[in-house]
Design goal:
The complex is a heterodimer. By secondary structure, chain A is an alpha/beta fold. Chain A has 13 helices and four strands. Chain B folds into four domains: 80 residues, no CATH class; 63 residues, no CATH class; 199 residues, no CATH class; 149 residues, no CATH class. Chain B contains 24 helices and eight strands. The termini of chain B are far apart. Chain B has a four-stranded mixed β-sheet with strand order 2-1-5-6. In chain B, strands 3-4 form a two-stranded antiparallel ribbon. By secondary structure, chain B is mainly alpha-helical. The chains are: A alpha/beta, B mainly alpha. At the A-B interface, helix 3, helix 5, strand 4, helix 6 and helix 7 of A face helix 2, helix 4, helix 5, strand 7 and helix 9 of B. Chain B: Keywords: Hydrolase, Membrane, Metalloprotease, Protease, Transmembrane, Transmembrane helix.
């Protein structure tokens, strides 16, 4: 009993100390600057706009890929069967091979004229005219010149003809040094699986970072431009503090947005593995890009020039980074899909180190700028 | 007397000419300032930073490309395949960047099922697949890899007849023009460099790698010679089963529908990838120029810097024209340069300039609305993203459907392919863009005045201000409604394009509602602005009059634009539904009385729905929202009814 008041007091004292610490942090001018930044983003509703932009980019790129896949591989999208007239010397062999393909319905025709007539009258979608010369089968394929349909027909024809080629090759295998490997079974995979992880997910993970850098550039050049930097410098805060606050606000929002997108992907039925590592990667890229923005804005305070230099610089750096053996976007894809090797985790670690280095560079440039201003 | 009148006329025309000359001089001077300001802001330090950043970025990029690491794709190591080093399947896995070969010992196999560690396990010639989406995707990639490996190894065989026993010549034939096998599309030599090379190769029709040209550029390089395997491993965005498709852009050979010869693996469906990539080159500089332009406009608004120009006797229109002129000229010059580089003709430039105008117009308005540079950045990014996708996405389908003509970029693709375009198609494509650009500039110039430029307000309020600045009286409702037509057209075409991929049963109802909503918004927004700014008395009679005027204006504007029907858009079912209410799709089978009724019915509809929203607008925001929903439903119901009646009649 006698101990309990002291325990309560201890807790209370600790709470007070914590409150003081939080209060100190709250009064930290850097936090004030960061809060001001976020408040301005909120009042201008730009963060909503940013999320909308990202959603728009993501949905349009998905739309694009669905369109592209349905063009390059229409059979995967809908169960379409092409009626094909087959004629010529190798009719029987071709019919046998085409029988195993689901996308094609081959019908024999006695000669080229009757097949062409059937094609013109629309009874068949394509004509395959076969002739055997020098031990090889020459196939003349005629597909309709009808935009979407010709795409579908050509894809069906190709699948059937590849099967035919395989069968013909089998008969001639004695003359070959290399015996072709037998193909693994067909899969039921969605053609968009790879796209989701290699394009969509990195896009959603890194877009917030680019926007954060752009915001940093604007935020700093605007202080110069409106002359408010002078006002801020009268306040009890160093230039480094100001830049820190702006960086914290811009880069801090990056993993939040990225996390939101990853959760949405999960809800959408796309499993995302290694979430902490992904968020760490996006935070590191966010800090690096925002630091780059700060460096550019401090050295070239003209907003137009700074934005231009920043955009070109980021595009170049990111373009270059994707060419690395394990670039950030490849690392993100492998982390999310669950194929991460130690090398991938090393990339995340390197990204963190580079980001801290970038922040250090921003501090150095800030110090120089402050010295010049004083 | 007549001489004095003639004198007056002459002197008036002379003074008008003088004024025109003065304005032109002022315009040119402002344009010169704009250019010099842009160059002056590049001081020595800035230039140094620019050079350093560009060098670093370019160096990283170039260095990696030069060192050959660049062949690694974004999908590298995506799937893990357990395969022993001595297995015949090890080589195809090792050759494919998306597949990572792992020792089979890493696989966790329980009761003959693959539970983890790897996604695929090749053991004793059989393949174990993990029971997941990823396992199936890995299997699909593995199958393609083995097929490609087979083709590559067979390409090294001395006995070509046994390795590639089937040779396919693919031709395209139109059905109604009575083609025969012999006459169906002869060999046409491509003018692109890689294309002509390919077709000359294909004369010795034994090489599977040397297919003809056509769209087969992707697979022709990939399946033939031994060194081409890394070409395939590049950016496979979706590992679809088709091993041609869109992975590798074969720049230069964009001509479709030509003959091609090769092994069956080499034939691939028509796809305008090369031209598409080149067309994209036109869009990239626009984003940068628009960014600079927006910054320059917003600059005038910071710290009242634009005030000296405002107090000069030059009108705001001239100031804006002067500030815009260098950017328009610059973009035109850049587009011409790009056209020269990628092999486009005057049509490409003529098609790109309307896009450039719309970029600048939207950016100008964004800069007039933005409160800060941060907000401007977001607005310009929104504009860029929207316009880029609006221009680019339809162009993907350039060879598939006439609806793709809603984007002028489609004209560029056609120009690069040598297909060309008719004047009607050009007008259909470019008209809405130019119209939108003109209206956006008009709205922006309206708020290019002291009380709007140097105040800070939220963007939607600024937009209402801009609309309000154009209201001179009740009759303005008529003109503003008519002016909204290009936007309505663009928005509706976008809706049509997006819904095009959906099945018809699903897309038509959505389409009717979406289109009704777009039109109702266009008819009511300026009315709402007028009421919000207290231009008009908030009474029911006023609201009815305003609504009637707005509806009539919209009807007249719509009739003016019914010309789009000529271009052949109605050949699409979706397109016809979109423009049904324009009343132009009446077939000859309809009697004159019905025709008149069908002509006047849309007028009645527009007047009624616009009056509904106007009445709502006069009561405030919530009432406006409610009335808007009501009007949209009414409009959609009408469209549906007309579509049923017309299709029943014809």
């Amino acid at each position: 009993m006698s101990e309990s008041p002291s325990a309560t007091e201890r807790v209370r004292g600790r709470l007070a100390a914590a409150r003081d610490a939080v209060g100190d942090a709250y009064r930290d001018p850097r936090v004030t600057v960061a809060r001001r930044e976020i408040a301005s983003l909120r009042s201008e509703k730009t963060i909503v706009l940013a999320l909308l932009i990202q959603l728009f980019v993501a949905s349009f790129s998905s739309f694009l890929v669905v369109g592209l896949v349905s063009l390059s591989d229409p059979g995967s999208v809908e169960g379409y069967t092409a009626d094909v007239a087959v004629t010529g010397e190798a009719t029987d062999d071709l019919l046998r091979a085409a029988g195993t393909e689901s996308g094609i319905d081959a019908v024999p025709y006695p000669n080229r004229r009757s097949a062409t007539l059937a094609f013109e009258e629309g009874r068949v979608d394509a004509v395959l005219d076969t002739a055997v010369r020098d031990g090889r089968v020459h196939v003349t394929a005629v597909a309709p010149d009808e935009s979407v349909r010709s795409t579908v027909v050509v894809v069906s024809l190709r699948d059937a003809l590849r099967e035919f080629e395989r069968a013909e090759r089998e008969e001639r295998s004695a003359a070959l040094d290399f015996e072709p490997l037998s193909l693994p079974p067909e899969s039921t995979s969605s053609p968009y699986f790879g796209f989701t992880y290699t394009v969509l997910l990195p896009l959603l993970l890194f877009l917030p970072a680019f926007i954060a850098g752009s915001v940093t550039v604007d935020s700093i050049t605007e202080e110069y431009d409106r002359g408010t930097l002078e006002l801020l410098r009268v306040a009890p805060i160093s230039l480094a503090g100001i830049v820190d606050g702006k960086l914290a606000a811009a880069a801090g929002l990056v993993p939040l947005q990225a996390g939101l997108w990853m959760l949405l992907l999960r809800l959408n039925g796309t499993p995302v593995a290694n979430l902490p590592a992904l968020l760490l990667l996006s935070a590191a890229v966010g800090l690096l890009v925002a630091s780059l923005g700060a460096v550019v804005a401090l050295t070239a305070p003209d907003r137009q020039v700074a934005q231009l230099v920043y955009s070109v610089g980021v595009l170049g750096l990111f373009g270059g980074a994707t060419l690395l053996p394990v670039g950030p976007s490849n690392a993100a894809a492998r982390l999310a899909v669950g194929s991460a090797t130690p090398a991938v985790f090393a990339v995340v670690a390197v990204a963190v180190v580079v980001a801290v280095g970038g922040y250090g560079a921003a501090r150095v440039v800030t110090g120089r700028t402050a010295g010049r201003m004083a | 007397m007549s001489t004095s009148r003639l004198d007056r006329l002459r002197s008036r025309s002379r003074s008008a000419g003088r004024r025109l000359r003065r304005e032109t001089r002022a315009l040119l001077r402002i344009a010169r300032w704009e250019v010099s300001r842009g160059t002056n802001s590049f001081d020595r330090r800035t230039a140094a930073v620019t050079v350093v950043v560009l060098l670093v970025a370019g160096g990283v990029f170039g260095g990696l490309v030069a060192s050959g690491v660049g062949s690694v794709g974004v999908d590298s190591g995506l799937y893990r395949v357990g395969v022993a080093a001595d297995s015949p399947y090890h080589d195809p896995v090792a050759d494919t960047s998306a597949l990572a070969a792992r020792p089979p010992a890493e696989a966790e196999v329980v009761d003959g099922e693959l539970r983890g560690g790897v996604d695929l396990l090749v053991r004793d010639g059989a393949v174990l697949v993990a029971d997941s989406q990823k396992g199936q995707a890995a299997l699909s990639t593995f199958r393609d890899a083995v097929a490609r490996y087979n083709d590559r190894r067979l390409g090294e065989e001395p006995n070509r007849g046994a390795a590639f026993p089937v040779l396919v010549t693919l031709r395209y034939a139109e059905r109604d023009s009575a083609p025969t096998l012999a006459s169906a599309g002869g060999r046409s030599v491509d003018d692109g460099s890689s294309g002509s090379e390919a077709s000359s190769d294909s004369s010795d029709a034994g090489e599977p790698g040397a297919s003809g040209d056509s769209g087969g550029d992707g697979s022709s390089g990939a399946s033939g010679s031994a060194d081409s395997d890394d070409a395939e491993s590049g950016g496979t965005a979706a590992d679809s089963g088709a091993d041609g498709g869109f992975e590798v852009p074969g720049l230069g050979s964009g001509v479709l529908r030509t003959e091609s010869t090769g092994s069956p693996a080499d034939i691939s469906p028509p796809f305008p990838f090369g031209s598409l990539v080149l067309a994209f080159a036109f869009l990239v500089p626009m984003n940068f120029v628009a960014q600079a332009y927006g910054g320059s406009v917003l600059n005038e608004r910071v710290n009242r810097r634009g005030e000296p120009l405002l107090v000069t006797p030059v009108g705001p229109g001239t100031v804006v024209a002067g500030k815009t002129l260098p950017y328009v000229l610059g973009l035109t010059a850049v587009s011409a340069l790009v056209a020269l580089l990628v092999g486009g003709g005057p049509l490409s430039v003529a098609a790109v300039v309307p896009i450039a105008l719309l970029y600048l117009a939207a950016t100008f308005l964004a800069a007039m609305f933005a409160r800060s540079f941060k907000e401007l950045t977001f607005l310009t990014v929104t504009v860029s993203v929207f316009l880029t996708s609006y221009a680019f996405v339809p162009a993907v389908f350039a060879d598939v459907t006439p609806i793709s003509l809603i984007s002028p970029l489609t004209l560029v693709v056609r120009d690069l392919q040598g297909t060309g375009a008719t004047l009607g198609q050009y007008l259909f494509s470019a008209g809405p863009f130019v119209g939108c650009a003109a209206v956006l500039f008009l709205l922006g110039v309206g708020v290019y005045r002291e009380e709007d430029m140097f105040t800070q307000r939220a963007v939607p309020l600024k937009a209402l201000d801009a609309l309000d600045a154009r209201i001179r009286g009740k009759r303005s409702m008529l003109t503003l409604a008519a002016l909204s037509i290009p936007f309505v057209l663009v928005a509706e075409l976008l809706v049509v394009a997006v819904l095009f991929v959906l099945p018809l049963e699903l897309s038509l109802p959505v389409l009717f509602v979406a289109i009704a909503a777009v039109e109702e918004l266009a008819k009511s927004l300026h009315v709402y602005a007028g009421f919000a700014k207290a231009r008009f008395a908030r009474t029911v009679p006023t609201a009815l009059v305003l609504g009637a005027l707005s509806g009539t204006g919209f009807f007249l504007g719509e009739k003016l634009f019914a010309v789009v029907q000529v271009v052949g858009l109605p050949s699409l079912t979706v397109g016809r539904a979109a423009f049904e209410s324009a009343g132009a799709g009446i077939g000859p089978a309809v009697s004159p009385a019905t025709a008149l009724a069908l002509l006047l019915a849309p007028l009645a509809l527009h007047v009624v729905t616009a009056a509904t929203t106007a009445t709502g607008a006069s009561r405030g925001r919530e009432a406006f929202a409610g009335a808007f929903v009501l009007a949209t439903l009414l409009h959609a119901g009408y469209n549906l009814a007309v579509a049923t009646v017309v299709s029943g009649l014809v």
